[in-house]
Automatic annotation (TrEMBL):
Alphabetical list of Gene3D superfamilies matching this protein: HAD superfamily/HAD-like
One Gene Ontology biological process: DNA repair
The protein, known as: Putative haloacid dehalogenase-like hydrolase
Phylogenetic classification of the source organism: Bacteria, Bacillati, Actinomycetota, Actinomycetes, Micromonosporales
Keywords attached to this entry: Hydrolase
Species annotation: Catellatospora citrea
Pfam families in alphabetical order: Hydrolase
Length: 233
């Protein structure tokens, strides 16, 4: 599964997922999705609610509007309302202090940047939610760039976020990119982008077997292990 390091150029860019990879949200995605479903009349305890949460779990890492379009079977108005309710519910939980950095995540990011590796945070959330998380954690100056789907950029598992990060930061070889995430959609994004290292982070949305099957080149117990994997202090 691992690539021989001799085949890779010097790594220059790390694209890291947020919730479940660098950020501990304690199940806030599902809680917010439950609120969003209920706001559209899909109440907890119903088969429709259970089916909706099943879709949410399967699509972890993807753009949330895409997820709600699937749940509401192409009803764009319902999907947009649910997405707005989701983002508001998640923002309220962030504002209540219910997100925190995963152990070692900030230190790993700092170590990568110290070693000359640019760090980009990617997510399936909308921009206001991503901004709220970054500000709550005090990470505004910790990373080089933060990207979300939209404005012509498709969310994961499409490669757009990673490739856009490479363009913005002047990376001229996709093999010089490492992508890390806890969902199969994070892994799919990295694989499609041609990243030299695509690291599955355990303990989040999807397990070891699923991440490996999606194409992870490496599996990490936590994102804190990433600098050591890449040979950084």
């Amino acid at each position: 599964m691992n690539h021989p390091w001799t085949e890779l150029p010097r790594l220059r860019l790390a694209c890291l997922d947020m919730a479940g990879t660098t950020v501990s949200d304690g199940g806030l995605v599902e809680r917010s999705a439950s609120v969003a479903l209920a706001a559209q009349g899909v109440e907890p305890g119903t088969s429709g609610h259970a089916a909706g949460l099943t879709v949410v779990r399967r699509t972890m890492g993807m753009s949330k509007i895409v997820v709600f379009r699937e749940i509401f079977d192409g009803d764009e108005a319902a999907a947009q309302r649910a997405n707005a309710a989701f983002e508001q519910a998640y923002a309220d939980l962030v504002g209540a202090g219910e997100v925190s950095a995963l152990p070692g995540a900030a230190e790993a990011i700092a170590a990568l940047r110290e070693a000359g590796v640019a760090v980009v945070l990617t997510t399936g959330f909308a921009r206001p939610t991503q901004d709220a998380i970054i500000d709550a954690l005090g990470w505004r100056d910790l990373v080089d760039l933060a990207l979300v789907p939209g404005d012509g950029l498709r969310g994961r598992p499409y490669p757009d976020l990673v490739l856009h990060a490479a363009l913005r930061l002047g990376v001229d070889d996709v093999r010089a990119i490492v992508v890390a995430g806890d969902s199969v959609n994070d892994i799919g994004c990295g694989v499609r982008a041609g990243a030299g290292v695509v690291a599955g982070v355990l303990g989040g949305a999807h397990g070891r077997a699923d991440l490996a099957a999606a194409g992870a080149t490496h599996l990490l117990a936590a994102v804190a292990e990433l600098p050591a994997l890449l040979g950084q202090p």
